Amino acid sequence: MANHKATKKDVRQAAKRRERNKYYGKTTRNAIRDLKALKTGKEAGEQLPEVASMIDKLAKRGVIHRNKAANLKSKLAKNVNALAN
Question: How far is 66 from 58, CA to CA, in rounded Å?
Fold first, then answer.
């Protein structure tokens, strides 16, 4: 365990960030799963911007890589467009 006061604080902050990132990541994964499960194009089209925004926020925070975020959004948009047709 760390002995310096600042290092102990850094450990506490890292733990707090890790918990927060896990929550955001899990929430986004659930939203993606729910979006994929939708069968109507109208509902999926309404939810896509919200899910895309969640994915962008994960990338901005560094929870996922920006290329992974782009790939996820692309695949989701393909699925939604396929439902619309």
Answer: 9
Distance (Å) of CA 24 to CA 47, 70, 71, 75: 17, 17, 18, 20
Q: What is the mean pLDDT of each run of 10 residues along the chain (85 residues)?
A: 89 96 97 94 93 97 96 96 87
**pTM for the model:** 0.86
Q: Between the CA of residue 23 and those of 14, 41, 42, 65, what are the distances in Å?
A: 14, 28, 28, 17
Residue 85 CA to residue 83 CA, distance in Å, equals 6
Q: Residue 25 in contact with residue 63, Cβ under 8 Å?
A: yes
